[in-house]
């Protein structure tokens, strides 16, 4: 499995191409992973911690224990052949040493080949770890990955703008995380084209953003040079909205929704 895991990690990294971004529709369990993986054009998957937690009746923000988070990741990864990046929140640890232990466990026990790592201390986007501490946590994740021999793709999240902070600090954090071993910067708060352009100019590496209604259109993000777009819990919201609409249609004795006959199967 190590050779295959290395190949998946290398593929995941190679798919982050400025101008031809990796589009990952976030999943939260085995069946959503399998269904999304079968969609034309899908090349890799990413989990969303919010969705994984909510599907279990828990709040986001490390509502799961580290054991539960690793088990959830393993179920998803075992269901598909594609590379999977895991939203690993803050590493489920208060310090860098704990992040290293848990990231190593995630790689070895689940087969993950990528992670998201947050820099906020709590569930809201503020406050954040100070920059040296946050960078040390990224470095710990990289050290753990190197110890396993898996070239883990680290998508380091910068929550500064989303938490009401200043631009210069956000950029400083992004570059510090890249220096610490991150492969991609998950830059939250780039809510217009000018901010996307500025981030691409000032951050010394690849940029990942979140897509949602009202955000910069996907085609334009590609033109600007973004390397990855994900949707976080939005894909769970999309699914739940469709389910709720269908439930209303059925209980009102309406027509059977066409998607009621959607073919799905967990087995290959």
UniProtKB/TrEMBL annotation:
InterPro entries in alphabetical order: ICL/PEPM (IPR039556), Pyrv/PenolPyrv_kinase-like_dom (IPR015813), Pyrv_kinase-like_dom_sf (IPR040442)
GO MF term list: lyase activity
A Pfam family: PEP_mutase
Q: Which UniProt keywords apply?
A: Lyase, Pyruvate
Database matches in PANTHER family: CARBOXYPHOSPHONOENOLPYRUVATE PHOSPHONOMUTASE-LIKE PROTEIN (AFU_ORTHOLOGUE AFUA_5G07230), PHOSPHOENOLPYRUVATE CARBOXYLASE
The protein's name is Isocitrate lyase/phosphoenolpyruvate mutase family protein
What is the species of this protein? Answer: Cryobacterium fucosi
